[in-house]
Structure prediction request, 476 residues.
Amino acid sequence: MSGRQGPRGRPQGWQAIRDDVLARIRAREWPPGAPIPHEADLAEAYGAARATVNRALRALAEAGWLDRRRKAGTRVALNPVRRATFDIPVIRLEVEGRGMTHAHRLLARCERPATAAEAERLALPAGATVLALETLHLADDRPWAWECRIVWPKAAPGVREADLTAISVNEWLVRNAPFSHGSIAFSAVAAGHEAAGRLGCAPGAALFAIDRTTWAGPDPITEVRLLFAPGHVLSSTI
Amino acid sequence: MSGRQGPRGRPQGWQAIRDDVLARIRAREWPPGAPIPHEADLAEAYGAARATVNRALRALAEAGWLDRRRKAGTRVALNPVRRATFDIPVIRLEVEGRGMTHAHRLLARCERPATAAEAERLALPAGATVLALETLHLADDRPWAWECRIVWPKAAPGVREADLTAISVNEWLVRNAPFSHGSIAFSAVAAGHEAAGRLGCAPGAALFAIDRTTWAGPDPITEVRLLFAPGHVLSSTI
DNA sequence: GAGTGGTCTAGACCACGGG
DNA sequence: CCGTGGTCTAGACCACTCG
Prediction:
C-alpha cells in the first residue's frame, strides 16, 4: 500500500487528494459536521476525474473521517471514530516474531457431547459430539498462553486424524478450516488455580484473555479461550 | 458498505466477483500459495471490465486473503492473517451505547514539568510543562473507568481554558485536537490500592487496561492510561 | 526487458434517500 | 422528485519487480 510517490516522496494521484482533504479537515477549514464540496466540484478543483476524487473520499470515509450518504452529500464526521486493527496471527508466529522459540504441549484431548451451554452458544444440534482440546504454548520454554478449545469436527473435516502434537490445533485450523466470520473479545481475568498451575503464576494474578468463536457460514468451527501469562501486552498503531 | 444487491439480496458487480473468488479460495480450488488468474483473464471470464475485477481483488487483498505484487501476480495468502478492528469511541458514547447513563468527575488537574521518563517517551523538550489530569468515568453512577492522562498543551491549544468538568478531556481532545497517528496497547493489570479505591473493587482485582499515546505529526498530544472496572469486555467481530 | 498490477480518464447509468 | 454518491466501462499510461 505504498502508493505512487513524487520526487520527494510526496503522494500523487488520489492519495494526494486524500491527504489534501485530510489536511483541510485538520486545519478546521471544514469543521466537524460541515459539508464538503461535491465530488464533481472537487474533481474540477483538483483537475482530476470524479472517479479519482471518489477513491480519495472513499478512503477517508473508511478511515472514519467522513460520513457519506447519497443525496445528503459528504460531511466531516462529527465523532472522528478511530479504528484500531490488530492482526490475529498464528500463536507460533507471534512468539517467533518476538524473537523467541515456540513450542506447544497438547495437555488434553477428548471427544465428548457438547454441554447445553456450548450447544446453545454454537447452535449445535442436540447431542453433538465435540473435540475438546487443551494446549499450552511455550516461548523459550516458559509458559506463554493456555488454550482451552472445543472444535466441531463436522466443520473441520480431518481434525480427528490430525497429529496435534506436531502442529498446534491453532495452526492446523488456520491452514485447514478457513472461517467466514466470528467474534473476538478481550478481557482481564483473575487466574484460577488451574490456570495458575498451567502458566506458572500465582492464583489471582491478572491475566489477559482472548475469547474467540469462528464460523464457516452457518456452522461453528471452534470456540477458544486463550489465557496469557502475566505481563502480556497486545499493541497496535492507530 | 452495503453494496448493490440483487433481487434476493445477492451482491452484484464487484462484490459478486469478490464473493465468487472468496468462495473458490474457501473451496480450495485455489489453495493457499497458488496463483490465481490475471486481472485481464478474470475480467473476460466474468464479463466485466478490468477495473471492476481490480476493485474486487483489492478488497480481498486488504482483507488479507490475497497477496498481490506487480509482475509476480496475485496469489492466495499463505497465512490467512485475519484482522480484528475495534472502534475507539468517546467513552461517553461507549457507555451510552450500552444503555447506561454516563457521567464523569475530574478528580485532579495540575500543571507540572514532565518527568524524565515522560519527556523521553513523548519526545518533549527538556523542562516542558504538561497538564496532568485524572478523571473517573461513571456508568449509571457506578465506576466505569479511571483515566490518568497527561496532555501537552502546545499540541492542544485551548485545553488550559477548557471547562473539563462540563466535557471530559477525552471528548474535548477528540473534538479539538485531531491526531495523525498513535499507539494503543491492551493488557491486564492487578488493581493497586489507588485504582481499587477509585473503581470500588478489591486491591489485586484483574483490570482491563488500555494505554494510548497520540500525536499530531511530530508533536505528542496526550498519553493516557485507562483502567476499567472489573468485568469489562472489549469485543468485536472478525 | 517485459509482464502484471496500480491508477487515471471521460462518460454513463443507477440506487438511494432527503425534502 | 431528483441530487448525490456508487459503480461500471473501455482504453490508456505507468511503476514496480521478477527473471
Notes: The mean pLDDT of chain A is 89. DSSP finds seven helices and ten strands in chain A. Chain A touches chain B through 49 residues (CB under 8 Å).
